[in-house]
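fyi for ur records
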Amino acid sequence: MPKKITGSFLLDILTYLSTFITVFVLALIVFFLVREGAELMRPSLLTSDYFEQKYIASLPADFDYYEGTIRDARDDEFVADNYGLIVEESIDKAGTPVIRVVDIADDSPLLNLRNENPAEQGETLRLEVGMVINRVAYENTGSSLRSRGAEAMVETMNNPDNVIRQIDFGIEGGGIRGSIIATLYMIVMTLIIALPVGILSALYFNEFAPKNKFTDLLRSFIEVLTGVPSIIYGLLGIAVFVPITTSLLPTNRSNLVAAAMTLAVILLPVIIRTTEESLKTVPNSHRFASLALGANKTQTTFRVVLPQAFSGILTATFLGIGRVIGESAALIFVLGTAIKDQVRILEPATSLAVHIFTVMSNEPANVELAAAIGLIILLIVLTLNLSIKLAVYVLDRRKRRA
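which gave:
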């Protein structure tokens, strides 16, 4: 067999082998995420808060026990006959075991509770379907705790000698709404900072900069920045951008603006290199034609060259969004790992990637929620990649028609 054919055959084998390994590893990752996180993939995961909204209430002194009949319970449900209540053992969106209300009678005494929160004392509260019960305290015996299970709680409630003194309940948590909002804020602010700087830098290098050792050195620095670990950018953010924002903005701590500035520095090498490569694909004949018609260098660059490189700029934008969504190390340094439900630009918050780090750092680690968030990130990245291909295809088709 000739050497050229043998070499080509070996290269083909290596190509197929590396492709198979890549696809196999990706399939394993997707399989793990689906297996662990698919159960939590519900719309409520995206729209609800991470922390449970808790209430502490008591029954009125003149309350009456429920005397009606309530529907029969299924095998996994438990009935508190005295209160017209049916509960079940379940898990919340974070994968934590909870006791959830699945049905409650229209005239149950638990629909007329007194708020025991000092700031809202005296207000009326209702125990509603979908809420979770954490603790039931009694006048003459110990409390029924969520950790002991729904059956034990209902059994104690059904004892006529036990009078409820206080009941702790709430709207279940485990959602990632706050992290989604924080991620969107950082995407928008990062692109606002990085895109103009990156595109203008690429225009300077490709269209205006002289071809000398200095510009070659600058390009080398940009390529070096591409390989710098994210944690180094995190040190830059906490040492430089956080002090800058605290001195210029009405805040005295780390904030999303500092995080966006840090992410912008991370994205700049990608945007500059991608945009510059796109500018190089524009034929020089188009530049010369524009100059021959009387346009100056600036007009040619912004009216002729830049529009033709738009597909590359769009690609750089989508790549930047994907990098922001998946970044964690730098943001851990700049923003910390505390999950926030109420997101404000001048305060710290967690992105989706940092949310995964936080829930996996807890004891015990919440693998299910981390897998569900990872699955969401993968779906977003997949959507971005398909959007890039579709947008570039549409733009190229329009160019060919023109």
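The mean pLDDT is 86. thats all i got for now
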